Amino acid sequence: GRHFGMRGLLRVACIGDSVTRGTPYASVEEMTYPGQLQRLLGDGYEVATFGEGGATVAPFGGHEGDWYRNRPSFAALSAAPQYDVAVIALGTNDAKFWNESTKERESDLQFVRSYREFLSQVRATKKVVVLPPPYRGIVEHARWVHWGEDTSILNERIPNLLRDMAEKDGLPFVDLPRAFVAAQKSNNGTLADLYAPFDAIHPNDRGLGVVARAVFDVVRSLRLRLRCDACVRGKWVATKDPPVYYVVPAERAGYVERNKPTGAWTRWRYETACNDLLAPRRARALACKTAERLGLRRVLLVGDSITYSHAQSLAHLLDVVPAAKEEQPPTKPKKQKLQRLAGAGPSQLSKTLTLDASCGFTLEYVRNDLLTIDETSDKCLPWFEKYRAASGPTLLVANVGAHASLDVFETRIREALPRIADVANERRDVVLFRTTYPGHPNCSTEAAPLAAPPPPLPASLDKYHWNTFHNQTTTLRRLLASDPDRFARVGLLDVVPMTELRPDGHRPEFHDCLHYYLPSVVDWWSALLFTKLDHLAAEDSQSTSVRRKRPASTRVSDFFC
What we know:
Distance between the termini: 29 Å
Shape: elongated
Oligomer: single chain
Largest sheet: 6 strands, mixed
């Protein structure tokens, strides 16, 4: 099919006959109804068209070549990944006079049965039925006269059958006959103004706009949920934009305080289906907005030195003064001293940093390499009581992995996960486990991102057991799926797909191919975090009711997987 929006968050398939195909009745391809629908829906959607001229929904005898299931578009549709919305506009050609005259004439029941069977074969989360546009009857010098003089079949019988079927099956439908009549009255014109010259059935640009607007209204009324992997997978693209912030190297203590104010690794942006919705420069605005909408009072990060780097990134991004126009990055990011939260290094770090009272939340980091609760050491500081004692909803971002074997990882997760989940469910926290990415051996020779994920390391090079990190993520997903109700407020912040593509930006001067300098790819973790939280907050807003402000039906795992 023809794709109009190539990187949308939500995918819409327009399935139908020549009215859906649009050409040659539209002046240009962008004026077909799917093309106009793409413009109405915007960048957040990807609209694809699967239109076949003369196609029927039922396999009429003697005309099997017209059956949509025998057309190339059906094969292409079946081979494509599942769509979020399928808009089905078929039935016009089933009403042709020569089809209705065959000996094997379809009864009303048979037509509806064929339509339902076709719907069952379309893979989509939501399905929308479109009632055919009105048939104007015999038009002088008309090029298409297949429907004859009887307008009742297409203007009454088919729409009524489809309307009754949609209502019985609980399917949303687009009532084009009413939309066309309303458009005619609003412009004090005639139906002919909405059709191609000398044509009784095919709309022109204006008529296709009526179709697009009617479909748009129904699609936007659907409560569509973004796929939980939205914004996660993408590619790195070179950019001339400066970093959102610069840092001045502080004394050489701890991991991320060995920074460089500039570097080639900072001149890349991560391009995903979210388009420019995902960007570090939007982190502060999104953080403030989502914290308010989700009622969050605190962001708590618990983990190892990599988590400390994430905390430093957040401190910088949330402290950046927004540009005059939010959609434009600052031309000269302000230089700022690296935020030192406490102590001489991350092993001693356990202090609250209040970033901005206007955002209504605080940022905290606690060093605990193994996410222990009852055991403490110099690198496993106490954190659980601090988390549990919070007075309001908390965003907890935790990690355990870089310092744990697979057995130790599973043991620690099994111990901590139920206790965290019980607190989160009671307080409506958002709990995210950040995935652990493998490092890049020989990073000193790398100067640019990779185009594809690297293969697993040979055993001879995997002295830090980086190859086990993927198994840790698989284990965590399995544990979360074992009790989805109890772990409804827990999800995964999956930073591996973007990070494994970045062998550049590490700290080879210190023989360190695991940690990154700042600013770096770590800032994009924060961008991903708040972009996905924004999606979660939007779902919470859609689910709002008078009696229950934030219903328990909103699962964090539906947005973070």
